[in-house]
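From the methods appendix. Each design record in this collection lists the tokenized structure first, followed by the designed amino acid sequence. Records were kept in a plain field format so they could be parsed without special tools. The example shown here is representative of the layout used throughout.

RECORD:
FOLD TOKENS (298 positions):
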């Protein structure tokens, strides 16, 4: 991430805190969600899954690349991380952002997971699906079983990447927090989501440099990790886990109009959750609460 982008994110973080200081105690929840959570749906939950604040948290919406959290779980359930995967022509030609994978590239499962989770490369998700059961269609059946197994009952997948399909796939903000909570029980996924950058080297020696799409990793010491997503249908999506004292907050934002509103909405949810979670702050003015919880690194 460029330096000026990091400075802009720091300014956004400060602005969100100031807005919350001024508004959260005086504005009704519905008005707050409409004006300051600029997304179709959003939620913040505590570590038990209790909803602290929500804006249409059970609305079924397109998930974009957040589906790759389930792709990763199913792949790890069935493959050894060090196993090598040969990229098929089918996987290589899938519409995707950079870095592009090439037909016959040989990449380990672990490195494909890094590529899929850190940079949202669709070809990596399809390659993992094919390596697991031979075809993406068969893999999707396992994804839907996994969703039911972990309690994401309002979710349906149609592919491993999150790209739009004729059979619409959907999830909810609430289900996304359930999915991330389950994904973080996998040590490898937790490690990957917390990395800012990573270098993949294929068997042929080609270097693939990765930089995590979770911009908040650079701005929040409390960020555990998260997964972004974007398609024209889904718009901008993000689900993440944030440390809050001895507990963990889970936030999800779906259908934000821009990356800026995605990050500011997430920060708003984090502050709302932090104030709710920290019993030492209960009954104190929120401005004092934020001063006590401030982090000079922001």
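DESIGN:
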């Amino acid at each position: 991430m460029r330096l000026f982008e990091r400075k802009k994110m720091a300014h956004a973080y400060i602005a969100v805190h100031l807005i919350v200081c001024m508004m959260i105690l005086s504005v009704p929840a519905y008005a707050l969600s409409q004006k300051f959570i600029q997304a179709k749906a959003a939620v913040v939950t505590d570590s038990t899954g209790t909803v602290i604040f929500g804006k249409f948290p059970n609305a079924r919406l397109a998930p974009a690349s957040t589906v790759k959290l389930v792709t990763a779980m199913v792949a790890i359930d069935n493959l050894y991380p060090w196993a090598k995967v040969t990229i098929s022509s089918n996987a290589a030609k899938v519409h995707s952002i950079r870095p592009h994978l090439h037909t016959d590239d040989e990449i380990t499962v672990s490195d494909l997971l890094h590529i899929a989770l850190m940079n949202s490369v669709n070809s990596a998700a399809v390659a993992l699906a094919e390596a697991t059961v031979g075809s993406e269609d068969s893999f999707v059946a396992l994804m839907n079983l996994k969703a039911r197994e972990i309690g994401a009952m309002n979710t349906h997948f149609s592919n491993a990447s999150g790209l739009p399909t004729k059979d619409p796939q959907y999830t909810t903000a609430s289900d996304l927090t359930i999915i991330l909570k389950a994904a973080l029980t996998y040590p490898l996924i937790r490690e990957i989501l917390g990395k800012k950058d990573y270098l993949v080297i294929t068997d042929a020696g080609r270097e693939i440099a990765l930089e995590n799409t979770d911009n908040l990793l650079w701005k929040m010491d409390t960020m555990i990790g998260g997964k972004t997503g974007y398609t024209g249908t889904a718009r901008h999506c993000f689900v993440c886990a944030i440390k809050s004292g001895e507990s963990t907050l889970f936030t999800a934002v779906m259908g934000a109009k821009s990356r800026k509103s995605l990050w500011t909405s997430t920060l708003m949810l984090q502050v709302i959750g932090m104030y709710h979670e920290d019993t030492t702050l209960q009954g104190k003015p929120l401005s004092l609460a934020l001063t006590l919880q401030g982090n000079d690194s922001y």
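APPENDIX NOTE: The mean pLDDT is 86.
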